[in-house]
């Protein structure tokens, strides 16, 4: 606890003063007696994996922790050599945690940020690792990243404005290799396993996915609360033949989560694969399609 507070209790004399201040209360000093402002400071400085333990300290701690599990956004960005988890709390505070191998040594990571205009594609921004990110290195960093993410999502009272899950190559406009496609499928399967292990569905207003095929959508969309979901966004860097699998497309459009969304559907390079009769319940669309122009021989 001392390590998490802004002014650590680093001497016996300081601890005695702290203990006497607690004795002002007309009951034995306990962790559950701590003021909310102190608990909030502790929570803010805790690692993700500590939050579940804090919920089990007392009913008081659980109430304070649960009051902070309403996120503007949770984003999981899986890359070739690291995983970036972004937590955007209501109130403007954001937290970035990078999970990477023990030999990983980069000064920046990249995140895709939506413009304020819903009609403009995302832009890629660089985030300073030393100044803005917490870095956790491990030989099995993928396992650690999904373990910590599970701790966040296990809270049954969690509410998320926008849940984003994506696999990107490191730089824009880089080609997707066979290895990238396999990595994307592996990460989405990890996410499916995590969500299916929960004893509740996620309260999410918007789901945003960057996927290579329908399997990625089926890995996440079934695990959100249907009536709470207001917006679906399905993006693919390129249109591939995998989107022509009508059996899997039918599975998507017949999900309760898909059928009960009334507000908006956003797509990138995927709109043409969804049958029109399964789109009429959406009030709005945002459709982005990329085109490749053949090179001309000027010589």
UniProtKB/TrEMBL annotation:
Q: Which domain of life is it from?
A: Eukaryota
What name goes with this protein?
F-box domain-containing protein
Where's the F-box domain?
A: 28-74
Recorded hits in InterPro entries, A to Z, give: DUF38/FTH_CAE_spp, F-box-like_dom_sf, F-box_dom, FB224
Single Gene Ontology BP annotation:
innate immune response
Q: Which SMART domains match?
A: FBOX
Q: Name one Pfam family in it.
A: FTH
């Amino acid at each position: 606890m001392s390590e998490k507070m802004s002014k650590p209790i680093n001497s016996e004399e300081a601890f005695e003063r702290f203990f006497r201040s607690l004795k002002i209360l007309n009951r034995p000093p306990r962790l559950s007696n701590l003021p909310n402002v102190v608990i909030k400071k502790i929570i803010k400085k805790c690692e993700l994996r500590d939050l579940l333990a804090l919920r089990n300290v007392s009913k008081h701690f659980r109430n304070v922790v649960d009051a902070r599990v309403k996120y503007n956004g949770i984003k999981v960005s899986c890359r070739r050599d690291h995983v970036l988890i972004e937590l955007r709390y209501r109130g403007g505070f954001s937290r970035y945690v990078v999970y990477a191998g023990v030999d990983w040594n980069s000064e920046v990571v990249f995140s895709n940020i939506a413009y304020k205009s819903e009609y403009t594609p995302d832009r890629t921004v660089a985030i300073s690792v030393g100044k803005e990110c917490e870095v956790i290195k491990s030989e099995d960093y993928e396992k650690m990243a999904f373990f910590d993410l599970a701790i966040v999502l296990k809270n049954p009272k969690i509410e998320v404005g926008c849940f984003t899950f994506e696999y990107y190559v490191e730089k824009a406009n880089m080609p997707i290799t066979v290895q990238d496609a396999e990595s994307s499928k592996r990460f989405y399967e990890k996410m499916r396993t995590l969500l299916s292990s929960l004893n509740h569905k996620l309260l999410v207003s918007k789901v945003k996915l960057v996927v290579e095929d329908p399997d990625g959508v089926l890995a996440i969309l079934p695990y959100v609360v249907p009536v709470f979901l207001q917006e679906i966004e399905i993006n693919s860097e390129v249109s591939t033949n995998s989107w022509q699998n009508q059996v899997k497309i039918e599975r998507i459009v017949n999900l309760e989560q898909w059928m009960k969304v009334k507000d908006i559907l956003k797509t990138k390079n995927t709109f043409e694969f969804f049958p029109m009769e399964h789109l009429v319940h959406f009030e709005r669309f945002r459709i982005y399609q990329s085109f490749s122009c053949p090179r001309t021989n000027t010589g």
